[in-house]
Design brief:
Shape: globular
Order of helices and strands: HHHHHHHHHEE
Distance between the termini: 61 Å
Number of helices: 9
Radius of gyration: 19 Å
Strand order of the largest sheet: 1-2
Strand content: under 5%
Helix content: 55-70%
Largest sheet: 2 strands, antiparallel
Number of strands: 2
Structural class: mainly alpha
Length: 254
Amino acid sequence: MVETSSFWGPVTSTTECCEKNYVYLPYIAEFYNTISNIPTILLALIGLINAVRQRFEKRFSILHVSNMILAIGSMSYHATLQNVQQQSDETPMVWEVLLYMYILHSPDWHYRSTMPTFLFLYGVVFAIAHSVFRFSVGFKMHYVVLCLLCIPRMYKYYIYTQDVAAKRLAKLFIVNLVLGSIFWFCDRFFCKEISSWPINPQGHALWHAFMGFSLYFANTFLMFCRAQQRGWSPKIVYFMGVLPYVKIEKPKGQ
C-alpha cells in the first residue's frame, strides 16, 4: 500500500486507539473510528424528527441533537488526533450525561430552576477545567461516576413501566452498552495482541456503533416514560417493522 502522509500534523491527543493511522486517506487518521460515528448521527436524526413531528418536550429534541454533536465531535477527534478535537469529543460526553440527569430527575424536582442551573454551571466549569488541565484518567473516572449516578433512576423507570415493548427497549439499551463496552475494553487493553491478528476487529469502532444504538434505545425508552407521565397514551411502533419509536396520542387541547 502506498505510504500516506499526515495531513493534520503530529498527534497531540492524549489517547490513541488500536487502529493504524492514515492507512486509507491522508485526511483521516483513524478511518474506521471516524466513519463508525455515522450510525449515531442517523439514529439521532430519526429520533429528532420523531420528537419534533409529535411535539415532544424540547428537552428530547435537545437530547437527540446532543447525540449528533457528540458523534460529530468524535469524528473530528478520530479524524485528526489533535488535542483540541479530543476536547470536542470528551466535553460533550459529560454534557450529555448531565442532560440525561436532568431528564431523569426533572419530573420530581420541586425547585424547577435550581437543578438545570446547577447542571449548566457544572458543565461550564468542567469544560473550562478540562481545556486547561487536559484530564486523561481523571476524565474517564469522572465520566463513569456520572453514568453510574443515572443507573438507580433509570432502573426505577424500568420497574414502574408495565409495557413489554418499552421494557424491551431498556434491555436493548443495556445489551448494546455492555457489548460496546467489551469491545472498547479489548481495544484499549489488548491492542498488542490484537495487532498481531490477520484482521483487526476495530473494537473502538464497534464501540461507537453499539453506543449509537444504545443511545437511541435509551432515548426512545425515556420518551415513552415521559409520555406516560403526561398522559399521552404512548405505544411502541416499528418503522418498516424494524426500528422502534414512540407514537403518542395527546388529549385534545394539548
